[in-house]
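Quarterly update from the structural biology core.
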Amino acid sequence: MLPAPSDLISQGLSGTGNSARCQLTPSASGRTCTGVKIIKLAWVGTRTKNFQSTVDFFRKVLGLRSELDLPGFRVLKLPDGSKVEVFGPDSDVNRHFTTGPVAGFLVDDVEAAATELRSNGIEILLLTEQDESGNAWVHFRAPDGNIYEFTQDPGVSRPH
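Predicted structure, tokenized:
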């Protein structure tokens, strides 16, 4: 018999917050945790033919602050440092974004996350080197066919 969802939450097995993926096992502790440790959602990127109207929506309607303005590419920030990036149809940045908006999950270690993805047969599309600010990311195709990202951006606040 599977435990009730409330039992999973009280045991830290729900997959929320800072917990890694956990499975019930016959071990002494009754569970084994493996997988990537997700901190929070911290980044969204989208490629669109409606570049300027999309940027205007994020800036004027949602009130996001523009951090970087380049032809066909904008980086907008939320108050906690999380980012929204908009790619125009002619932008050379992230040309592999073809499935719709891409969600980016904050992790502490992109290299370890990429290793976990590879060990589970997940296709890696792009793995960057860490930049001078400590930021790095990996783009991957999940089993649903969509593209996602893990990022280790030190400019994004962490939950307390």
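The chain has two domains: 5-34, 40-151.
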